[in-house]
Amino acid sequence: MRIEKLNDNKIRIFLNLDDLKEKNIDLHTFMSNSIETQDLFLDMLSMAESEVGFKTHNYKLIIEALASSDGNFILTITRIKPETQLSSNANIIKPKVKRQSITPNKVVSIYKFNTFDEFCEFCNFINTGSLSKCIVKFKASSLVLYKNNYYLILNNLKLSVTDLKSFTYLLSEFATRITNEELFERKIREHGKIIIGKNAILTCLKYFAN
Residues with Cβ < 8 Å from 121, sequence gap 6 or more? Predict the structure, then answer.
């Protein structure tokens, strides 16, 4: 990781895959805005303050990210005072001590199952495999019926990099991942029917799966 100060209000941070590995973050986890990625971003801000004097307290930040063809990442971070008006469409965040102020309060993943039986089959499979030990970590999950499909909503998965890889790979065998998760979640919660409101996987195993 390398930090370059462009001026008093702008820095550039260079990351490579080895930097991610040191934090036990793989490319999928980094791109999905995971809890680990949030922690990495906080570490980068702390390092920027100690190395180049780039303080972010009481500032808004504009974050511009660029992925190069060689697998490296370049983050350009510009700080502005809250009252400054912007015409740009760049992503703006308010850094605070709490992690939730930097990114949305929850990290959402949504997967579509064609039938309820397919969801039950997935639950049975995960319960008999190596990921069975992780089922207790899926409490923040729900199942929603929308337009004859079943959607598993997962919030804040706190899994190791290895388990997350296994879990997402397994899910892809049974379901299709939905993009624009936050917008789609609001849509299906408003127009869909909640089948299992919480702890969807464990509830399915208890009452529906064989």
Answer: 174, 209
